[in-house]
């Protein structure tokens, strides 16, 4: 680690000292924050339970489930359990209000909508949607629930705004399990994870100003999904696996000898194709202050066509490859592959920005799970799962608004460190730079 970065790290750690008085001001702000969300409740009791539960999700209890939260605040467990598990209040209006607030505070015409699946390991078989399936959290196939999340990323911030629970085919054909889990009739038909993402896009896409759609390699793998987004007029940049087959349209066609079919450009795996490029094909981009230290990224883009599942040639797309380098030893630490329907002339810094946004939802999920109890639920039915998830998204959004509030109150961004001076009890902040510039 460079000495200047080590010094900067120590400054940031020193600035993380929070005055106790700050916490005395948070709770009244949380009560005010929840007012527009709980105004749809017809009973004051529901308002109180929502406030208690969100406070519990933001508290320091080790396991943020109903029992722990009720114990933390000295309440009876059963009323709170009823509120989360089966009380007849609608969660969708709360997420719609969340979407409107995110658009108001973070919205930008060049914002990025990011889709990402996330797994929740489970040991039993009764929880709604649980099955043996790929769990990204564990990095293997295991017993888990899977949900698809929609995140919003702009220069002003990033957060989660919506989610859908994925029901495997074995669930949608088992009426007994569906009845027992309380799955509504209009949600019992099988829908793939990509169809659930399209549902969220239809529900929230018009409310959230955006210029891009992004997602991980699970979302970018199906050709039909990319074509559907293009048909909806969306500009996407989706990660794809390294074994994706493509043809480089910017290479010369093989020589034709005048007999038989004209030869086509060969199909190549995108990882092998990018590894074969010479150093002159890459442009170096400096991404300042990465999460694990300064990172240098090499970027290349080319016009290509990808192979479809029917072994045919798809529509023209743009392949974008990012190689992340460690600034100290210049070793490649990670390589990401993307396909996009962006214009070939799209600047590399813009593509790098969207790639960076695609990783932001991982930060959102990590924050929600570690600070807002997203994965700490102990409910089995459809209603309880959606109630918990919705309130966890609200808790996460409150944390984001508090961060934004701190930024507005600290006008000395990027100024000299002065932990004991001009900000009083406020926590000073130095933001991670989002600007991306070409290295000299």
Please describe what this structure looks like.
Strands 1, 2, 3, 4, 5, 6, 7, 8, 9, 10, 11, 12 and 13 form a 13-stranded mixed β-sheet that branches. Helix 3 packs across helix 4 (66-72), helix 3 packs across helix 14 and helix 6 runs parallel beside helix 14. By secondary structure, the protein is of the alpha+beta class. A hairpin with a 4-residue loop joins strand 2 (131-135) and strand 3. The protein has helices at residues 3-14, 20-38, 44-57, 66-72, 77-85, 92-106, 169-172, 175-181, 193-204, 217-220, 223-231, 270-275, 348-371, 382-409; strands at 112-121, 131-135, 140-154, 157-165, 212-215, 236-239, 245-248, 268-269, 283-290, 293-307, 313-326, 332-340, 436-438. The model is unreliable at 411-440 (pLDDT under 50).
What distinguishing features does this structure have?
about 450 residues, 13-stranded mixed β-sheet, about 25% strand, globular, disordered C terminus
Quaternary form: single chain
SSE string, helices as H and strands as E: HHHHHHEEEEHHHEHHEEEHEEEEHHE
Q: What is the structural class?
A: alpha+beta
For the biggest sheet, the summary is: 13 strands, mixed
Distance between the termini: 21 Å
In total, the number of strands is 13
Alpha carbon gyration radius: 24 Å
Q: What are the segments in which pLDDT stays under 50 over at least 5 consecutive residues? A: 411-440
